Amino acid sequence: MDLIVSWSDKANNDLENVFDYYKIEANLRVARKLVKALVSSTIQLKYTPHIGAVETLFTIDGIELRYLVKGNYKILYYIQGSTVIIARVFDCRQNPNKMK
Predict the structure, then answer these.
(1) Contact indicator for 67, 75 with CB cutoff of 8 Å
(2) Residue range 68-80: mean pLDDT, rounded
(3) How many CA within 13 A on the CB side of residue 32?
(4) How many CB atoms lie within 10 A of CB 60?
(5) Distance (Å, rounded) from C-alpha 5 to C-alpha 28?
(6) What confidence category does residue 58 fall into, taking pLDDT thresholds of 50, 70 and 90?
(7) β-bridge pairing 66-70 and 53-54
(8) What is the value of pTM for the model shown?
């Protein structure tokens, strides 16, 4: 059974911030390529949602968070019923307390 991958508002906002940053600091092509790579890396979660390691630094109301790593980015997600919800996209070069 294939699951549905859904992006939370915060995760979408995180992606927009990544795009906006790289559009200014690099160029439009780099920004698009990076965001596309981040989104594409989550497609596998439809078929193998438990592929990501369990996150030990953060929790959301007692829900088990998992994560994928793509480049410098950690993609946090959790499984709720038949849906995989992408919770956040975090640049690992930042202080993790910033996400709290």
Answers:
(1) yes
(2) 96
(3) 3
(4) 14
(5) 26
(6) confident
(7) antiparallel
(8) 0.90
Please write the tens of the pLDDT for every residue from 77-96.
999 999 999 999 999 988 76
Strands 66-70 and 73-80: antiparallel
> d(Cα 92, Cα 95) in Å, to the nearest integer?
7
Alpha-carbon span 68 to 31, nearest angstrom: 20
Amino acid symbol at 10: K
**Domains along the sequence of the chain with CATH:** 4-93 (3.30.2310.20)
Kindly list the distances between the CA atom of residue 88 and the CA atoms of 26, 28, 42, 60, 68, in Å, as whole numbers in the listed order: 23, 22, 12, 11, 11
Confidence of residue 97 (pLDDT cuts 50, 70, 90): low
Cα separation, 31 vs 64, in Å, equals 30
